Amino acid sequence: xxxxxxxxxxxxxxxxxxxxxxxxxxxxxxxxxxxxxxxxxxxxxxxxxxxxxxxxxxxxxxxxxxxxxxxxxxxxxxxxxxxxxxxxxxxxxxxxxxxxxxxxxxxxxxxxxxxxxxxxxxxxxxxxxxxxxxxxxxxxxxxxxxxxxxxxxxxxxxxxxxxxxxxxxxxxxxxxxxxxxxxxxxxxxxxxxxxxxxxxxxxxxxxxxxxxxxxxxxxxxxxxxxxxxxxxxxxxxxxxxxxxxxxxxxxxxxxxxxxxxxxxxxxxxxxxxxxxxxxxxxxxxxxxxxxxxxxxxxxxxxxxxxxxxxxxxxxxxxxxxxxxxxxxxxxxxxxxxxxxxxxxxxxxxxxxxxxxxxxxxxxxxxxxxxxxxxxxxxxxxxxxxxxxxxxxxxxxxxxxxxxxxxxxxxxxxxxxxxxxxxxxxxxxxxxxxxxxxxxxxxxxxxxxxxxxxxxxx
Length: 457
Prior knowledge:
It is built from nine helices and twelve strands.
C-alpha cells in the first residue's frame, strides 16, 4: 500500500509497534472486506437467481393466460400482476396495486417496442416497504398488443441479505480486533529483546564496563542474531578501548624516561658554559634518546596496527627467499660481532603476510644477536600445512621466572640481559603470530634460548 508523502512521513514517525499493528489492521481489513464481499456476492447471486426463476415462471403463466383470454392465475405468495394496453391504460391489476402504474413512460415505450424490462422497486438499505422485483413483456392477444407485468416481493430475499451483512460485519469486526490484538502482542514480544538491548546499550553509554547483552543460546532468529552481533560489537569496542588504554599507558610509561634524560641533558648544557666537545657529547646522547623515542613509537604503532587488523594479506612466497630477505640486514652485524648466523629453510611456497612476518623474523634474529651469545641459527620447516620458524642462540637463556612473561610488552630479563631495547620485540613477534592464527613460544634449551613461531600457511 502506497501512502502519499505527508501520511507516509506521519506513519514513519509512529512507534514500531503502532506501525506494525496498523499494518496488520489495514491488511486484515482489506482481506476481510474482500472475503465478506465474495461471500455476499455469492449469496446474493444465489438468492437473485432463485427470485428470477420464480419471476420468470410467474411471467410465463401470465403470458399464456393473456393470450388465451383466461383469468390471470395466482402467483407466489405476495406476487402482483398488471396488464396494460399499448397506450399504458390498466386493463387488469392486483387489488394491492389499485390504479398505480408499475412502469414509467420510458419503460412502457421500450416494452411496447419489444424489449423485456426487469427491475427492482425499493432498496435493500435503508429498509423500505413494498420492495418488488418486476418483469414486463409485450404479448399479442387476439391481434392486440398487451403489456404483461409480473412482480414478486423481495422481502425474504432482502431480509436474508441484511442478516448476512450484519453477521459479516460482526464477524469481520471481531476478527479484526482479534488480529490486531494478536499482532500487538506478537510485535511487543518480538521487540522486547530489542528494547532490552537498547537498555543495555544505554547502560554502556553510562560507562558500564564488561557489559554483554543477555542473548538466548537456544534460538536462531533475526533478533537473536542481532543480539550476538551487538555482543560481538561490544567485545570489539571493549578490546579497542583496552588497546587504546594500554597504548596510552605504555607510551606514557616508556616515553617518560628518554624525555626526562633529554630534558636533563638540556638543563645541564644550559646551566653553565660548555666546550664544543662537551656540547657534541650532549648532542650525541640526545640523538641516542631521540632514536630510542622513534624506535619506541614505531614499535607501539606497529603493535596497535596489528591488534586492530581483522585480516592479513596472505600471498604465496618462497620460504627460502623470505628467510634470506629477513636475515640480510643482520649479516653485517653478525660479521662485526664475529658470530655465525646460519639458516636452514625448506624450498617450499607458503602463504603468509610478508609485510609482518619478515620484520618478526628480523626481530628474533636481532634479539639473539643483541642479547645472546655464540652462533645464531634459524630453521624454517613446513609440515601438515603449518610453518615452523625457530631461532636459537648459545647464550645463558632466560631466567625461569621470566619465561611466562617473555612476550609481554616492555618485559626485560634484567638478570641476564642488558636494558638495551624497548622490550617490545617479542611482543611484536607474538602479535604477528596471533594475527596469522598461530602461536609463539620461548624456551631454554640448556645450551641457550629457542624462540619458535608456529603458523598455519
